[in-house]
Amino acid sequence: MDNKAPVSSLKGVGKQAAETLRDMKIESLEDLIMTFPYRHEDFQLKDLAETPHNERVTVEGRVENEPSVLFLGKNKSRTTVTVLVGRHLVKAVFFNQHYVKAKLQIGAIVTLTGKWDRGRQLITVSSHSIGPRTDGADFEPVYSLKGSMHQKTFRKLMRQALNATKGGLQDCLPASIREEYQLLPFEEALETVHFPEDAASLKQARRRFVYEELLQFQLKMQALRKKNREAEGGSFIDYDLNRLKAFIDALPFDLTSAQKRVVNEICRDMKEPFRMNRLLQGDVGSGKTVVAAIALYAAVTAGKQGALMAPTEILAEQHANTLEEWFRPFGVSVALLTGSVKGKRRKEVLKRLVDGEIDLLIGTHALIQPEVLFKSLGLVITDEQHRFGVDQRRVLKDKALNPDVLFMTATPIPRTLAISAFGEMDVSIIDEMPAGRKEIETYWMKKEMFGKIVGRMEKELLAGRQAYVIAPLIEESETLEYQNAVELYQQLTVYFEGRHAVGLMHGRLHPDEKEQTMREFAEGKIAVLVSTTVVEVGVNVPNASFMLIYDAERFGLSQLHQLRGRVGRGSDQSYCVLLADPKTEIGKERMNSMTETNDGFILAEKDLELRGPGDFFGRKQSGIPEFRMADLVHDYRALEAARKDAEALIASESFWVSDETKCLRAMLEDSGILEGGRLD
Hints:
Blueprint: H1 15-23, H2 29-33, E1 39-42, E2 56-63, E3 68-73, E4 76-85, E5 88-95, E6 109-117, E7 122-130, E8 139-142, H3 151-165, H4 175-181, H5 186-194, H6 199-229, H7 241-250, H8 257-271, E9 277-282, H9 288-301, E10 305-309, H10 313-327, E11 334-337, H11 343-354, E12 360-363, E13 377-383, H12 390-397, E14 404-409, H13 415-421, E15 426-430, E16 441-445, H14 450-462, E17 466-470, H15 485-495, E18 502-505, H16 511-522, E19 528-531, E20 544-550, H17 557-564, E21 575-579, H18 585-596, H19 600-611, H20 613-617, H21 619-622, H22 636-651, H23 662-670
Parallel strand pairs: 5-7, 9-14, 9-15, 10-12, 10-13, 11-12, 13-14, 16-21, 17-19, 17-20, 18-19, 20-21
Antiparallel strand pairs: 1-8, 2-4, 2-6, 3-4, 4-5, 6-7
Helix pairs in contact: 5-6, 6-22, 7-9, 8-9, 17-19, 18-19
Organism: Planococcus maitriensis
Domain Helicase ATP-binding: 269-430
Pfam family, one: Helicase_C
């Protein structure tokens, strides 16, 4: 039967079942057979002597005594019976199944599956059958189902669909790749992934599908990368090396070796005739802004204009002030364009921009308005790129004929995620901090220490420094007993009354109020800023030396690290206190990790391990696909191999013409990257 045939062609699929399957996004036989189980129930008989405590186990044994039933209240009961399993006498406990008493005759053979308590020699039974095992099904697939669909019914439909499509399914992986990695053929892997004979064969089937998924994804990324690089009229920026060296020599500090390496990577791209599409990663305070300045100056020496887009007005102003100071001796014209630049002043900026009198334009999303036109835009830099939507970034890029593009982020992204989410980009990493920066001292303390911590905070305030206090919620919640920003603000306002000014910042404030509060904090008019995570990416306040994060267990590791990065920007020793009473082991591990290292990349890897890729980025904006089988954390070796293979395939002539890769090219066409077999 054709794998495109509707599922209604299967025996037992009536109108109601077809609707339930449609809700599960299953309409064809192909949809059905490619719906993989999320786990398998292991019914292999185990030797209890070799089974670890608290593990799930299936055993076969003989009933040794009369079962006893204890009724525990309405519809609740506990049935206990002694069973001889091999040479072990064990207790089998059935909850809320008092009816099993009649079946558990002395001498009867039973098969039991449940959790093994080694110390008490007891099995808490989750499923059972009377009589010895005869079906031989050691592994049963378990699927994510909806509505009234049952596992047993779905397994029957799956078996039917696999039989109906057998012999008619195409294997998309070239034979040469299958041989290199010793991967199972498609149909064999498909049968095995649903109904494996044993754990070893399931592992081999999973290997096949993990690699195939990652290869297909990486092919899309590499094809996109090739398409971007070879875009018609790619920007060629022939910068003046001597002028660039003079600018670097005039900076008030020396570049770190990591900054030098990254500058070389960016400048090399700018000289090439293709469009640069590069992601610059660097921890908070690692010196990304100076790298951006060098790249922008390189564009200016080639007679091009540059643009830098930041997520907030205050950050844009900060960039403009810094760049103006650095560029003043070199005669570079820098202008600022934000929502606050209005009327006559705005018209003047727009006219000077299109006339080519402005070399560098710094701003917020105001840069992407239709009336903002450049004379010769050569380089576009987006700061904190994940704060802008894909469309916003594209509009700025489209203001010139394929300008070079540099995205910057202070969110350390583990290599596996950078390869996946930004696979179509080249990635540069600043993995070294400037000399002389003091590490932020981080402490994890329990909530009953709040009073002492506020006292320690006041010592910093009396020394003329400032503090952040971060809370996870804006207002009180009936369901979540976490401290909130409004309540903390009220408490601290009363505590510091007459001594230190306290400000409040959260996402529900009007943008103008947010800007005003941040400006007052930056100018030192506010001593303590109580805020939600809206300060995670924001203004540089070198005078802020103390941060208190309330209910710190509510935040992911990367977010905690980003928040901590708001302090430690000046010459004074800075402190970060995590106030938390985590209930879980993961929560405790997070707190310990934060006190052990200031390295954002180490923490990002740990966060990825603890939370998984979707939660790390936030699924909606991550650009990370939902894989059927692959797991980016555990399958990173396969990801690296798939990336290498995809690069080689896309670069080879044979990929575009060979029959062996026809199926992979069709996949690229379906995704819209290829048109008529070409990268158009």
